[in-house]
Amino acid sequence: MAETVALIADMVDGAGALDVTDVWENGWKISNELMDKIRPVFELHRDPGYADLEQYGADGIEGPGGSLNAFTGPEVDWLAHAWIGDFKRAFVNVHVTAWLGPHIDVPHLGIAFGTSPRPWMYLDTPARQDLNTNIDYFDKYIEPRNEHYLELRVDPRLTQFVSRSAYIRQVLTDVAICSSLDNNEENWELMRTEAHRLVDIWLGWVKEAKPVPVEKRAELAERDLILRRTIVKRDPANVLAARRLGPDIEERLVNALWGADRQIPRPSVS
Fold first, then answer.
1. How far is CA 202 from CA 8, 205, 242, in A?
2. pLDDT tens across 168-178, in order?
């Protein structure tokens, strides 16, 4: 696997008038397949605080725009299913991010597809315990995925993307997949397979999870919020939204991804 450390925003802007509509079509389709698996497992409610973002800007084809739906519920602190794009100018980003409530300490779920301007995928399960010292947690959620990660790491179809943000690199687990691929049917099938595989694993963890002791839930919830807020705010790709839609929309979207203006309260810690 080759590597690139270039800034995605610069690579996308440098691509000029590249039509990436098919990247959005493929990425959005996969994201809906994943949501079809996730929705039946949880009680989810769309947060009305972000009703204005269900469709904003243009349709991505005639101009930049997007859609963001934010959900919460008794077992899910914050779930965002979103896309943003300017399809005739090389820009697409699709998100399914699920942040669980403090009743369990199963890792969260992070999945994204986008352009660099080649298609890229991000697949990870952000940890909720210290992986350096909580060895049982590491052995349960990270180690079993190591061999598969190593297989993908040497797959010549994948070019590893290395974030220029030290913080973003630090929060990725050691089995995170963040890679770009050529835009062809074979590679999209690979991305679909890997995304479904991760969601299936994650949902299995949720099903088998044991409750977190009540006295530890408030601390876990606070850690989750700090992590989610900081990841979203420090994402170097945020500048693409500002360049396409303006700083006000960018700020609104960033806040939506971590739930700054949510109207439905966070899950109970009791």
1. 28, 5, 33
2. 999 999 999 99
